[in-house]
Amino acid sequence: MIMHGGGGWWQFLRHDESKDKPQVDRQLLLRVYQYARPYRLLITTVLGTIILASLIGLIPPLLYRDLFDVVLPNQDRTRLGWLALGMISIPIVTNLLGVAERFFGASLGEGVIFDLRQEMYAHIQKMSLRFFTHTKSGEIISRLNSDVVGAQNAITGSLPNIITNSITLVSTLAIMLSIEWRLAILSVVVLPLFLLPTRRVGRILRDVRRKGMKYNADMSSIIGETLSINGALLVKTFGRQKQELKRYKETNTKVRDIGVRRAIVGRWFFMGLGIAASIGTALIYWVGGSLALSNDITAGTIVAFVAYLARLYGPISALSNVQVEFVTSMVSFERVFEYLDMPIEVEDKPDAIILQDVTGHVRFEDVSFDYLVGNEILGIKYHQPAKNPVKAGVSEHHQTSMHKEAPTNGKDQDGFQGPVASRGWALQDLSFEIEAGQLVALVGPSGAGKTTVTYLLPRLYDPTEGRISLDGHDLRDVTQESLAHQIGMVTQETYLFHDTVRTNLLYAKTDATQAELEAAAKAANIHDFIAQLPEGYDTLVGERGYRLSGGEKQRLAIARVILKDPRILILDEATSHLDSQSEALIQEALEPLFEGRTSLVIAHRLSTILAADKILVMDEGKMVEQGTHASLMQQGGLYAQLYETQFRREIISDKAEV
Q1: What b/e string do you get for 122-134 counting C-beta neighbours within 10 Å, with b at 16 or more?
Q2: With left for phi above 0 and alpha for psi between -120 and 50, is residue 574 left, alpha or beta?
């Protein structure tokens, strides 16, 4: 599903607090209820236990009245014994019912939140790469953890409390009216003192909570960015510890201050409720005492009424507070739904084809791709540049990263600064063909569009214009899962989980045997190294694999792809940051990787380029040349220039080493 126009997830991420106050409306409540519908039996059970416990809870004040009006005046010891037994039995029964209600309520709440959390995780997984390049990881974690927990509190805490206190309030007021209507009416006179501040306080706490969530998400982002392996290395090597500590302190201060404000507002609110309850109790004693002195009511009636006041004002106070809590907790649902409502940019068609028996024939037909058009689809506004590129040598990562885009001086209608990239069209009218089993080298200056090509083939993005096909099937007509099974990628920056070598390899093939693992590792020239580790294949590689060297990580990534055995290989063959020995081992490991499969390689090594069946030369998003090394050298174009400026130095360097 693609959402056009000004809507989209970016507007959710750039939330304007002053213009968009969270509203708990009927539509939001109905949407929350949709998640509870599968648990209707549990809902009925919870309601039944709440009603039964509330009705039984009405009995003790009647026992108190009977004690003062009947037992004590008549000195009825037998009746006194029964009253004592009742006073012991009723709390036991009500507490047992409370345990049952808690069990069924927790089962209901946890079930709903389980479904919500699963749906949210699945939805975020479906988001295109664009979403992850524009969203901080801390923000995503905050939505999945803090916001879901807040929504859980609404289901397991606020909603049951509302139901329980509502039933208690109605039943208590009914029995009070039946006992003495004058005192009952007097009891509710103070209700406006409970209700008047509720709306105002609810609005304040709701806004405070939303700001608190935002500040916590910001703090999570700082932690994730600066305390990860990459972040910690960057901070230490640039000596920015003091600056990062200051930045964290600023956000931490906001979290602290908003927490203090929430506590103070809540305390004033509870103080008002306590004063209102005290006024009501004093009125009952005053007026009830006057009626008792006139022999209009008995002393037992006053005792019963005072006991019922606790059941009347307690639920009123709780409902006033629960309303505030419920409204603020619904902010969590709003934030969760904001992510669930984000449009999915790359999605399977209902009748998508499952790829099987792929040969590996790839065709790009008049493919153009504009990162900015994709941003517009998702609600990121910008000034559209002309289709013809105006600047060469623009980094492709510049196009995908929000933080590296040059800002415009203009603002959109919401007052937000709009991102503008230096070159919108990363690819323009690109056409080429890769026969099954061919090795194709992709070369060109930085920013030529090479990485974008490798993003489009596994369908991390869809083309803005044109068509990409695999074995004659448009990639938009096949399932993403089956496409992923046919493609293996080895990128410059190898990602490894903080787990064992074995687990990282098994990510490619979960049912692989030890023999298969070792065969893949041997093919990637990494088995001997693994065998020398303290625990062999069961050795932890550390966060992002940082216990391994760059060359070791890359060879482990190659082994993982060999184990996957894809029909199509996409490789960014950047080895310039490695020592000559690691580079030689990787080059040797790549040879079996190319065999028997279609390979598209962003080539940095002359040896790979010379071994290629076809060389594609790109510049400024266009295909400017294609052919073999010999034919391209004869043309004397861009490839010949690159050979003289880049690859020729490699030959000289290799000769010098010899």
Answers
A1: eebeebbbbbeeb
A2: beta
H and E: helices and strands count for the chain: 28, 12
What pTM value is reported for the model?
0.67
Three-state SS for 568-598 is: EEEEECCCCCCCHHHHHHHHHHHHHHHCCCE
Share of the chain above pLDDT 70, in %: 80
Length of the chain in terms of residues written: 658
Residue 141 covered by a domain: yes
For residues 396, 399, 402, 408, the Cα torsion angle rounded to the nearest 10 degrees is 130
pLDDT recorded at residue 317: 67
Residue partners of 478: CB distance under 8 A and separation at least 6 = 352, 353, 354, 355, 470
How many C-beta atoms surround the C-beta of residue 345 within 10 A?
21
CATH number of the domain encompassing residue 172 = 1.20.1560.10
Q: Which of 321, 340, 359 is the last residue of a domain?
A: 340
Rounded Cα–Cα distance for residues 488 and 558 (Å): 9
Residue 389 has pLDDT above 60, yes or no: no
Instruction: Give the C-alpha separation, 407 to 588, whole Å.
Output: 45
145 shares a domain with 209: yes
C-alpha 602/C-alpha 443 separation (Å) is: 6
Shared domain check, 439 and 301: no
Say yes or no to pLDDT of 77 above 90.
no
Nearest to 544 by CA among 231, 239, 129, 217: 231
Query: pLDDT tens digit string along 453-496?
Result: 999 999 988 998 999 999 999 999 999 889 988 988 888 777 78
Read off the pLDDT of residues 243-302 as tens digits, 9 standing for 90 and up: 888 888 888 898 888 888 888 877 777 777 777 777 777 887 788 788 878 788 887 888
Beta strand 614-619 with 439-443 is: parallel
Number of domains in the chain: 3
CB atoms closer than 10 angstroms to residue 600: 26
